[in-house]
Amino acid sequence: MTASEKQDRPLGGTWSRRGVLAGLLGAPVLMLAACTDDKKGSTPNAAGSGPAGGSASPSPSPSPKVSVAKITVTPADGTTDAPFTKPVTVTVTDGILGSVTLTDAKGKQIPGQLGPYGTSWTSTQPLSSGTSYTLAAAATDKDKLEADANAKFATASPANTFVGYFTPEDGSTVGVGMPVSINFNKPITDRAAVQQAITVTAEPGVEIVGHWFSSTRLDFRPETYWAKGTKVTIQLRLKDVQGAKGVFGTQSKDVGFTIGRSQTSVADLKADTLTVTTDGQVSATYPVIGGGPDHRTWGGKLVISEQYKETRMNSGTVGLGSEYDIPDVPHAQRLTTSGTFIHGNYWSPDSQFGNDNTSHGCISLKDVKGAGDPSTNAAKFYASSMIGDVVEVINSGDKRVDPANGLNGWNMTWAEWKAGSAI
Q1: Owning domain of residue 195
Q2: What range(s) does the L,D-TPase catalytic domain occupy (predicted)?
């Protein structure tokens, strides 16, 4: 070892050129690592920024402003039995409503109206029972910040309901005397509300008025018989109409019928003849038997309401005990609810037709048992007739039929008929 090598040797340790070189090369590596750490983690403080020897703290983000407007919807979101008789309401506090949209399950929009200060909204069209609805509302507060509300709810179905059974049948062709007759399955106390929910129109147009015969029956007719070919439409809008306390309608439908040829008949029970007029021309005259002295036939205009090729007639059903029971009366057409028919007769002798009145109130034409001969007077009249035709009975010796006994409202004057309207 040379003298110079001895001088370079550190005290208390071993010396090595390799060690010196390693020490010299190690310094830049440490410096590089320090720069790398600064870039990844922290940045040296700029002059005058932050505390000495530390890093700057990030400034907190300002909280977003929230509208103070509060929207309330009635019925509330999630309601499953909302009353359909009450409107939907939307109110806002600390703000003004900007928009409200209410739609049913089919997407139909329900109209409504804003209150005078824009703080409320009320639906203006009745809701339907058993129906789902969706509502969206928006409002702004004094700072023009917007709030919104969404609600889904469903209305309840009524516990008690009523329906109207209408005559004639939808799509039928009927005679010129056919009224629209609606029979309700429950008594109606709010007749005006129910009548307003039923519209009857005709083409060609004519005035049509409703008449209440009772709390369960409402008929409609024009002043005079329908013109042949008239098309009549009935619009029933009874759904959710309150006919009596707590009793609501269920129907919303359109039905209609057509008036066929014009045919009316006159049964003169003094002459014992039935004269048929079709489209203004006498088309047939038949000898008949009318009601006897103890059972006169009702007078007036009687409308054919039912037709049976054969039917049973039993005196017990009309309060006459056991006077008769005929199981196969041919070509029978009903004229009153109480049991008056114009029908075929195979049991009376030929000499009585056109000469004697011996029936229990019905009008009969000559016929055969079994209703199988189309050439008999009864068969021919039956074939030429339809429901809604009018048979006017004159000289019967009895009073005019009760207009409510069958479809016989034509036995009232127009003034009497209109007096029975609720609107």
Answers
A1: 160-260
A2: 263-394
